[in-house]
């Protein structure tokens, strides 16, 4: 195990944390109503005059919502290869492809076979694995690339061309007439081979809207399977994403894919809002790796969509594998999983403040919208610090099998807080204190409030420990 792997267990969890199980009396419907599953005529399919007047009732636009009806195009093996640290050999690519397939992503997108001879061989090798996920490759809108791509055995080809004024002027130098002609030729060619084809513009949010809608309409008419919007530079905000996707939804009949860069940290929010506006496919990469700071991260997107509809997300994906996949990719590109990563960040399910701890112990839904056990992880309540509370300490007393009254536990907690005011106490420190306190009560050497007696017992315990060493 190398240093960039996360555990579901915080690094020092054996020292100062208590693992807390789910309580039997937790509420089930803690995620709130799912806006994506409103039936068209209100809750029970009937529509009274009162419901029609309800300003919060679903509107027509709500039925565009695909938050509970989407597919993931996992692009770690394409976009992810553009991450500064990435170099995936064949073996690593295959390991990542297999893990993502087992997780349950619907599509895997691979680097263009036109990029290099090895890229072509790797693409063919992954196509031969017989995975459940459909295999796509990502090419420039060019017949030379398309001819190579269709020979690799892929299930589909993702075609892309820049349409923004910046790219038209400073990158490929082509006008919209040329772009449209090239798109039609490539799409017809790929379709003639009986495989899926997607057409995407690049830097869509800085492209002329009329140009965009016109080319999407053209490719939709000739039978493209999906059109793609790409926030290649990460400039879009959720409202812009909603408006563009919703407008496009009204113009094309085919599926809509979206590719979102994370330069301003909005890639997950933008993906969510794209689904609300009617997008059908979201591009992700593991840990979000990609060009610059990358794209919508798989884990973060899953967290966001799970919060919206846990049952749907659980039914589609093998969530317990998320940590393993992130560790695999983190190791391959030599980065750490960020501490604040949704789901797998090492503090993702750690509760500290006494008030939080008490509520979490009664019902985890109070401060958790993600159930750690759904991801094969465990929640922790940190207790060896000065913000601790007696309820969390009581939970540890019970785990240790000690019998103390509430008054005794409160007394012991006061001592933990006093010590933690000087330095944070490890779990061992807390356990020792509780055991010493317990044996003091049992033997009659200690009563509630006898501070000096407790200090003496703790000193004797430390002396005995040192003598034993
Ligand atoms: Zn990209």
TrEMBL record:
CDD domains: DRE_TIM_HCS. Its cofactor is Mn(2+); Mg(2+). Pathway: Amino-acid biosynthesis; L-lysine biosynthesis via AAA pathway; L-alpha-aminoadipate from 2-oxoglutarate: step 1/5. Residues 1-60 are annotated as: Disordered. GO terms for biological process: lysine biosynthetic process via aminoadipic acid. InterPro entries: 2-IPM_HCS-like, AIPM/Hcit_synth_CS, Aldolase_TIM, DRE_TIM_HCS_fun_bact, Homocitrate_synth, LeuA/HCS_post-cat, PYR_CT. One of its GO terms (cellular component) is mitochondrion. Its EC number is 2.3.3.14. Belongs to the alpha-IPM synthase/homocitrate synthase family. Homocitrate synthase LYS20/LYS21 subfamily. This is homocitrate synthase.
């Amino acid at each position: 195990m190398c240093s960039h792997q996360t555990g579901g267990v915080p690094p020092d969890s054996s020292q100062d944390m208590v693992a807390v199980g789910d309580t039997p009396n937790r509420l089930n419907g803690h995620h709130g109503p799912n806006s994506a599953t409103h039936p068209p005529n209100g809750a029970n399919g009937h529509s009274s005059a009162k419901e029609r007047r309800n300003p919060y009732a679903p509107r027509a636009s709500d039925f565009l919502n695909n938050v509970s009806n989407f597919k993931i195009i996992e692009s770690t093996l394409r976009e992810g290869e553009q991450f500064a640290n990435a170099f995936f050999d064949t073996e690593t690519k295959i390991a990542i492809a297999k893990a993502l397939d087992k997780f349950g992503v619907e599509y895997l997108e691979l680097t263009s076979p036109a990029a290099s001879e090895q890229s072509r061989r790797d693409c063919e090798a992954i196509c031969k694995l017989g995975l459940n996920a459909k295999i796509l490759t990502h090419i420039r809108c060019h017949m030379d690339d398309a001819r190579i791509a269709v020979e690799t055995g892929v299930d589909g080809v993702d075609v892309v061309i820049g349409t923004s004024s910046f790219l038209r002027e400073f990158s490929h130098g082509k006008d919209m007439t040329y772009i449209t002609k090239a798109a039609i030729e490539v799409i017809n060619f790929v379709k003639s081979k009986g495989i899926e084809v997607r057409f995407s513009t690049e830097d869509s949010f800085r492209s002329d809207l009329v140009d965009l809608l016109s080319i999407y309409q053209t490719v939709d008419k000739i039978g493209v399977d999906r059109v793609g919007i790409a926030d290649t530079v990460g400039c879009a905000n959720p409202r812009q994403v909603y408006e563009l996707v919703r407008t496009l939804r009204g113009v094309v009949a085919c599926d809509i894919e979206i590719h979102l860069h994370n330069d301003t940290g909005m890639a997950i929010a933008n993906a969510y809002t794209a689904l609300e506006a009617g997008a059908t496919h979201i591009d992700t990469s593991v840990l979000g790796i990609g060009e610059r700071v990358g794209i919508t991260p798989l884990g973060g997107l899953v967290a966001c969509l799970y919060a919206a509809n846990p049952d749907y997300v659980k039914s589609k994906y093998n969530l317990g594998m998320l940590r393993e996949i992130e560790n695999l990719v983190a190791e391959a590109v030599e980065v750490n999983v960020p501490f604040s990563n949704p789901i797998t960040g090492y503090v993702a399910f750690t509760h500290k403040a006494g008030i939080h701890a008490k509520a979490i112990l009664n019902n985890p839904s109070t401060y958790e919208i993600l159930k750690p056990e759904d991801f094969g992880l465990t929640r922790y309540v940190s207790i060896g610090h000065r913000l601790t509370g007696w309820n969390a300490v009581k939970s540890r007393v019970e785990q240790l099998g000690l019998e103390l009254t509430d008054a005794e536990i409160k007394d012991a907690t006061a001592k933990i807080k006093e010590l933690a005011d000087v330095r944070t106490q490890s779990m061992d420190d807390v356990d020792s204190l509780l055991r010493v306190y317990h044996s003091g009560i049992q033997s009659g050497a200690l009563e509630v409030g006898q501070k000096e007696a407790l200090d003496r017992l703790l000193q004797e315990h430390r002396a005995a420990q040192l003598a034993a060493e």
